[in-house]
Amino acid sequence: MFSPLTRCLWITGVVVALTTGCQTVQTTRGGTVGVDRKQQMSMLTPSPQQVDQAARQQYAQVLQAAGEKGAVNNDPRQVARVQAIAQRLVPHTAVFRDDAVRWQWEVNVLESDQVNAWCMPGGKIAVYSGLIERLNVTDDELAAVMGHEIAHALREHARERMGRAQATGAAAAIAELGVEIFTGVRLGGVSNTFGQAMFVLPNSRENEQESDRIGVELAARAGYDPRAAVTLWQKMAKESTSRGAPPQWLSTHPSHDTRIRDLQDYAQRVMPLYEKARR
Length: 279
Fold this sequence. Notes:
The protein is mainly α.
């Protein structure tokens, strides 16, 4: 019979091994913009199939909650506009990964004052009316936003975050187990890792930069001016300044100046793709 201390140390060792064990994953091809970072997925990271299933469920819940408030697809013109842009962007996801064009893509506009948009794993997109109206975005600028969010899904950034969250949760479980063994007091854990990864945990600056670069390429290939990504972020900077704080969508993103400089560079790199698409 192991002592409580021995059991705790043994379990700790197992969890640490699982947490630190990683596999290298290449989720996408590099494209013209050369986003080819090999990603490290923890052994605790859910499979792509598990993440897609969770995304479908979470998306349905978001739409149901918004629908109960009468906040889904209220303006047919906005909906048609957003869906038309998505239809032009999605075919070009094949440049980065073959399976993406076969995802069950879905696009909806949510009525909200927030300057926000997101794309869940598997192609579940939401654009908030506040982004369209408060920034008075052009189609080119809206394509930049949507291309950026689609890039997050292509690169499986949410899955990366989920792996980190699982590892953090495992560490917390060790601490809880130790308290339970030695004091008999049971502590409650935190669940819903997917929700945390999608809506709470921030993307790293590296992830944001990758999505910016892939986003301008998707837009250019679809015939949208990639330079609009620059004007979009200039509007974002002005919006955050006027409100005294960055919009929720920007709260964990790189600084405006850094982002705009990078977008200026990469927009020029993909201009030949845009010019070809416009012929």
